[in-house]
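User: Thanks for the earlier help. One more: DUF4340 domain-containing protein. Can you show the sequence and predicted structure together?

Assistant: Of course, both are below.
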Amino acid sequence: MNRVGTALLMVLLVQLVLVFSLYRAPSGDASAGAQKALTKAAYFHIDEIHIEDGHGNKVHLEHRGERWVLPALGHLPAQQSRVDLLLAPLAEENTGWAVAHTLPARQRFQVAHYHFRRKITLLAQGEPIDTVFLGTSPGFRKVHARNDVDNAIYSISLNLVDLPTEQGRWLAEDILKVRAPLRIAADTYVVDRSSGEWRLGTGEQPDAAELEALLQNLEQLQIEGVSEPRPLDEAELILEIEGLAGTTTLAFYREGEEHFIRSSDHPLLFRLSRYTFDQLTGIALSM
């Protein structure tokens, strides 16, 4: 084989090697877009979560026993469904293809370490596992997300509305619900079932519809968060409720268009919906 033929053969071999390499090993851009997990949450028992917005507001959640609690609010229980909404997409083992991976994209989608809408830090046994930045929304119930140690930016199923940075909005909504009362006393009525059936303080039977409304509203009682401490006028309704676990006093307040409830079991003042307030203060059980 002459020199020209040898040279052409060498060029052909080099080209084949290059083509093989291109098809076998993905480029940096392709790797950045590959499907993979956003975090390692699926491989650890996450027992602590820190949530922060870009204005310094923070929420701290801890897993104690069988539930999530809020240390800043005296370890009161957190709303489990809200925590699940956060952890589920972060623990997905396949978040789909990355939508971007450049430095300018971090700024544009607000997932940079200096420019974000939410910063989520996951911990296990006191050790940080992952930090994720959440930014703009590409669509309904979607948000751009980036792991702090990765360039890839993903679109995940999450809504920032479900991730408030106010401690009180993470509280379990049913924290004040009354499950099995034995006696309920208000200024205008007393009902008691120590004899096996509900009776008024006079011994008469209460109005069945009004009694059902009272019991149902107490069992379904939900708060709308925690209020800042404030002076309040006299309570419009005070209920003293006796149950197997002891006695609890619930006081209901109205201040303009706002409604509040205070429980003897907790030092906090809670917000209440107008509907719930009206339902309970409108009960007409006469003695």
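User: Great, one quick takeaway?

Assistant: The mean pLDDT is 89.
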